[in-house]
Here is the input.
Amino acid sequence: MPELPEVETIVRGLNKFLLGKKILSVDSNNPKSFPNSQTDVDKFLIDSTILSITRRGKVIIINLTNSYSLIIHLKMTGQLIYRDNESSFAGGHPNDSLVGSLPDKSTRVVVKFTDSSNLFFNDQRKFGWVRLLPTIEIPNIDFFKKLGPEPLDTNFNWLEFYSRLKKRSKSSIKPVLLDQTIIAGIGNIYADESLWMSKIHPATKVDKLSKTKIRNLYNNIRIILSFSIEKGGSTDRNYLNAEGKKGSYLEFANVFRKENQPCSRCGTTIVKFKLYGRGTHICPKEQRIIK
DNA sequence: CACTTGACCTGTCCGC
DNA sequence: TGCGGACAGGTCAAGT
Here is the structure.
């Protein structure tokens, strides 16, 4: 589900609400969603305080005052929703949200704070997870050790993007963009959107792309991710921000979920097909495979 | 090794 | 209305 802009939006929201809150309890009904034991919870979570909340790729990191952290991967359908008390959901337009009162049947983990506010981890498909780690060990876990650079980092320049892509010169560009070890944070929506903007067919082999094309793709990835953050991310089905509200990027999307609609640049009908198991959207006129 | 497919889950939608 | 199948924003593991 959530890609970089959605996760970034959630992290910004959590930073508004959670800093300085003290944990009263953590409960889970599914060991896959939260594998740590009650002993760990008692020892490392109860009475600790939220120090900071950050993001790396699509992973959320909640740092606690006792040198432990909660790391959270939302995968396809995960949500992290803050409620300051049970009645707070009464406000807000129904169209702004996809959830009613919490917890509900998709709730996998509940973090209660001493001021009676709650953080709910909802996850329909149970792919996502929350886990507790010593803060200092985070960079050492496999996922983070292998994770590629942040596309919006000011130190990440197009030449680095170019050299990282070249490590996969024989494979198609789309699965390379989705490979988190090459570049962090891009998922199916923003891969399709950036390839459309760059007029590149997603099945084009990396070694068929010119330096100019790759530089252009690098620029477009950064433009699209930044723009989506401004719009609060994309709500396709399940995504909600920390306040339980939708993002509006898809109203501005050019190809994702736009099949059978005209291309905004040339009017050709947008086509959807399956590529390496992922739904893929292109303008068939402008995005051609270079042989 | 590098690429590709299936598995992990639940829910919804679409066609018959 | 019921039922089967396809599909869904992500990653792994296991094939080839």
About this structure: The first strand of chain A starts at residue 23 and ends at 28. Residues 89-94 of chain A have pLDDT under 50 and may be disordered.
